[in-house]
Amino acid sequence: MLQPMAAAFLAFRAGLRDAREGRPPYDWKLLTHSGHPGTDIRSGWRDVWRIFCGAIIIDVIYEIIVFGWVYPLETLIAATVLALVP
Questions:
Q1: Pick from 14, 16, 17, 55: most CB atoms within 10 A?
Q2: Torsion sign across C-alpha atoms 35, 37, 38, 42
Q3: What does the CA dihedral 30, 5, 86, 77 come to, rounded to 10 degrees?
């Protein structure tokens, strides 16, 4: 519950920042403004990076508590799903 709520909060905050700066919504900008897609993707990844790192930390703590061990591949899969799907 904690990670998806954090992802939604940070996405909302990034959307507000884009609106204040007069930029179009991120997905719309990627689909319609093909001027600098590399720059647009990098700026989006900066916002997602925080959520991805948080998801890794939460999953590692969970795995240590439940399994007593960290499974790196499972951690990467869970962090990717939790950071990119919401």
A1: 55
A2: positive
A3: 120
